[in-house]
Design a protein that fits this description.
heterodimer, A: mainly beta, seven-stranded mixed sheet, globular, B: mainly beta, four-stranded antiparallel sheet, 48% strand
Chain lengths: 120, 112
C-alpha cells in the first residue's frame, strides 16, 4: 500500500515552453502533497505544500507564478513549470501523506519516483 | 525547524552493523526524529521515526538518548543494496502539515 506515481518519469522540453508533472496517490487519499526539487549531488529542496482544495503554500524563494501547483482531488496534484529555462532542469519529486491515516505526529511521507526535467 | 548535522559519508562492509549518528542540538519538545533513505534517481523512502528511547522495526533501529540532542540510526547486517543516502530530519510535532526539510544526508557506501 501507499503507492505514489509520477508522470512523466522523464521529459525534455524547449526553453520557453511549459511542462506539467502529475503526482497521484494510487491506493490512498492524500490530504497533503509536497513538491521537491533536487539538483545532482544535492539534497531535496521543498518547494511547496499542497492541501486538497486549497492554494499551495510555497517556500521562501520559490516563485508561485512560475511553479503552478494544483491539488484538485485527494489523489492528484500537478506541478506546472511555466516558461521553462535551462536552469529549471532538475529532478522533481512529489510526496503524499494522509495524517488521518498515519497520525498527526507522523512524518511518514510516501514519495513518488521523481520526474527528470531537461530544458534545452 | 531544528537543524540537523550528520556525517557526509560513511563506508562499511557487507554483513556489518552500521550506525549513523545525527546531531540536533536545537530540537524542541514537540519535535519528532525521522529517517529516510534515498537511492539515486528515486524518491526517498521512510525508514523509521521516534520521539525518545528506542524504536525498532523490520528495517532498522533508532536510538534516542534522554536529552534528545542526537539520534543514531542502526542498520543491522548491511548488504550492498543498502548503499544509499540516509537523511535525518526533525519535524515539529505540533504541525498539521508534516513538512520535512531535508539536510545534506549521509552517503553510505557498502563494500563487498
Amino acid at each position: 500500500g501507499a503507492v505514489v506515481s509520477q508522470h512523466p518519469s522523464r521529459v525534455i522540453c524547449k526553453s520557453g515552453t511549459s511542462v506539467k508533472i502529475e503526482c497521484r496517490s494510487l491506493d490512498f487519499q492524500a490530504t497533503t502533497m509536497f513538491w521537491y526539487r533536487q539538483f545532482p549531488k544535492q539534497s531535496l529542496m521543498l518547494m511547496a505544500t499542497s492541501n486538497e482544495g486549497s492554494k499551495a503554500t510555497y517556500e521562501q524563494g520559490v516563485e508561485k507564478d512560475k511553479f503552478l501547483i494544483n491539488h484538485a482531488s485527494l489523489t492528484l496534484s500537478t506541478l506546472t513549470v511555466t516558461s521553462a529555462h535551462p536552469e529549471d532542469s532538475s529532478f522533481y519529486i512529489c510526496s503524499a501523506t494522509n495524517q488521518r491515516r498515519t497520525g498527526t505526529h507522523s512524518y511518514e511521507q510516501y514519495f513518488g519516483p521523481g520526474t527528470r526535467l531537461t530544458v534545452t | 525547524l531544528a537543524k540537523t548535522t550528520q556525517p557526509i559519508s560513511m563506508d562499511s562492509y557487507e554483513g556489518q552493523e552500521v550506525n549513523i549518528t545525527c546531531s540536533h542540538n536545537n530540537i524542541a519538545t514537540n519535535d519528532y526524529i525521522t529517517w529516510y533513505q534515498q537511492f539515486p534517481s528515486q524518491g526517498p523512502r521512510f525508514i523509521i521515526q521516534g520521539y525518545k528511547t528506542k524504536v525498532t522495526n523490520e528495517v532498522a533501529s533508532l536510538f534516542i538518548p534522554a536529552d534528545r540532542k542526537s539520534s543514531t540510526l542502526s542498520l543491522p547486517r548491511v548488504s550492498l543494496s543498502d548503499t544509499a543516502v540516509y537523511y535525518c530530519l526533525v519535524g515539529e510535532g505540533s504541525s498539521n502539515t508534516g513538512k520535512l526539510i531535508f539536510g545534506q544526508g549521509t552517503t553510505l557506501q557498502v563494500k563487498p
